[in-house]
Amino acid sequence: MPRLDESRPFLPVQIALLTVSDTRSLADDKSGGTLAELVTRDGHHVARREIVKDDQAAIEAQLRTWIADPEIDVVISTGGTGVTGRDVTPEAFQAVYEKEIPGFGEIFRWLSWQKIGTSTIQSRATAGVAHGTYLFALPGSPSACRDAWEDILKHQLDNRFRPCNLVELMPRLEEHRR
Length: 178
Prior knowledge:
Layout: E1 3-4, E2 14-20, H1 30-41, E3 45-52, H2 56-67, E4 74-78, H3 89-96, E5 99-100, H4 102-116, E6 126-130, E7 133-138, H5 142-156, E8 161-162
Parallel strand pairs: 2-3, 2-4, 4-7
Antiparallel strand pairs: 1-8, 5-6, 6-7
């Protein structure tokens, strides 16, 4: 059964938050604000926070900047994961992935199914790894961000979570480059 191993010291993770939106600013970015609150509440650090337009090239550029930054362990984005013409976040993320983590989107949609039913098929939440950095793309609603954090990311980004977690894999993410 999953549990926290309290005998292990907590290791805070450096997390960059990206909001993808043509209309939001930091002052009214509720989803990004929700993520920032949850990340810091649970002992991690918000290393950077930006807003970029719904533009694949702009999203890719921001991701590439952050994955090149050794001070950033994780990028979490919110917005642009739907199916409308302007929703290009998954395409941008997939363009920079070295490895996709398909289980994240599968579990996110399974959890979402329990709350919003078949509407969950509209989400293209995705995750992967690039240059030793974890990348997670979440829908643009504060409730979706809260669900993804509370039910998945909070546990997988805590090195004390058992039987396993993503943090303990961080030192091995770039083994192929050695």
